[in-house]
Amino acid sequence: MNAPDTREPAEEERLVVAAKAGDEDAFRRLMAPQEARLRAHCYRMLGSMFDAEDALQDTMVKAWQGLGGFDGRSRLGTWLYRIATTTCLNAIRSRSRRALPVDIGFRSTSSADAAGPPLAESTWLEPFPDAALGLPAAPDPQASYELRESVELALVAAWQHLPARQRAALLLTDVLGYPAREAAEVLDTSTAALNSALQRARALVAERVPPQSQQATLRRIGDAGIDAAVARFQRAMDDADVDAVLGMLREDATWSMPPQPAWFAGHDAIAAFLVANPFRYFRWRSVVTWANGQPALAAYSVLATEPPDTPYLPHALNVLTLDDANDANDANDDGAKRGGRVAAVTTFLDVTRRGVSGPDFRAFADTGLFARFGLPGSLPA
After folding, report:
1. Per-residue pLDDT tens digits for 122-138
2. Opening angle at CA 168, ends 165 and 174, nearest 5
3. Do residues 197 and 165 make contact, with C-beta atoms less than 8 angstroms apart?
4. Which of the four CATH numbers 3.20.20.70, 2.30.30.140, 1.10.10.10, 3.90.550.10 does domain 153-210 have?
5. Could you tell me if 281 and 234 are in contact, meaning their C-beta atoms sit under 8 angstroms apart?
6. Mean pLDDT per segment of 10 residues, for the chain of length 381 residues?
């Protein structure tokens, strides 16, 4: 999946020479094709879009300062991945790993837990906008598939359980496609030591990810099925229709809401949560987007007590994990199946404003998450 820079080597060399001479514009043009893939790499390492942006900027500064030492024996991308990986490893030393509530939170049967005190923002995995992957207007289908698969929530969450250097080794080889020898050079270790680390890392990740990736599931469902399933779920959520939501959920579905540690599983627990919290206090509108290679709904809300002409403001991002099992009786008017069920909903809330619960849940309204996804700051009534 290590997509190379498509520029001719001579053009890259010309830009390198100009940048080494102090031409900042040449440096920007040199870096432009690399930024999206480096950002995704930093996100896989750190589990945070904010942290990934910081690491990317640090990488660019170090690349500018150290360009004189780039001797051209490797491709520019390889040299940059070395800098980015080292930058991320240094950042990880001072930060705890990020996770999802189903990994470190607690399964709840009380809807009151959904409005409890949140854990520190730095505890949680953050969503990654598909738009930041840098896919071309007409992407290669297989390359697009692999790139989206490499940022799926379940996989990124599993990687966070690995020690930092094992994580880096796995990403460099299994995601970016570097030979073990080159990955070992990046990590300043032996090939034998790297292969040993890879064996342990692959075994741990295999225990934590589903047997079928979300991209494989989405491919089986098909574009029409995905669109139908997301549209049904969107309509059910916007209408605050509990029965319709449950009709879209698998029986063992989970619903989590970082930064809240509580999560819910099964129809009864999820229904109680929806009735007691979001559907009780708010009216909803949503916009379809994509995060971590998965369909998502950007949810906007107004308090139920506000006038009908009140604009809807950002509230949360609901990332959907779909299952490709179909109900044989679930067909649209044309007789085509609508697609799979929702196996999990991960609702990413923003905690810029803290310390509220109940009807004041609005204080979690996002001030940065929606902007990162290129979403509007409000929706009309």
Report:
1. 789 999 999 999 887 66
2. 135
3. yes
4. 1.10.10.10
5. no
6. 62 91 94 95 96 96 94 85 96 88 88 70 89 81 92 96 96 95 93 96 95 95 95 97 97 94 95 95 97 97 95 96 70 48 93 42 57 93 87
Peptide bond into 210 cis (omega under 30): no
- How many whole angstroms separate alpha carbon 176 and alpha carbon 133? 14
DSSP 204-273: HHHHHS-SS-HHHHHHHH-HHHHHHHHHHHHHHHHTT-HHHHHHHEEEEEEEEETTEEEEEESHHHHHHH
Q: Where are the domains of the chain?
A: 1-95, 153-210, 214-372
CATH 3.10.450.50 corresponds to the domain 214-372: yes
201: phi then psi, degrees, rounded to nearest 5? -65, -45
What phi and psi values does residue 228 have, to the nearest 5 degrees? Answer: -65, -45
- How many whole angstroms from its chain centre is CA 212? 18
Q: What is the C-alpha separation between 365 and 372, in angstroms, rounded?
A: 14
Residue 240: in which H helix or E strand, if any? none
Whose CA is closest to 360, among 305, 285, 309? 305
- Specify the CATH number of the domain 1-95: 1.10.1740.10
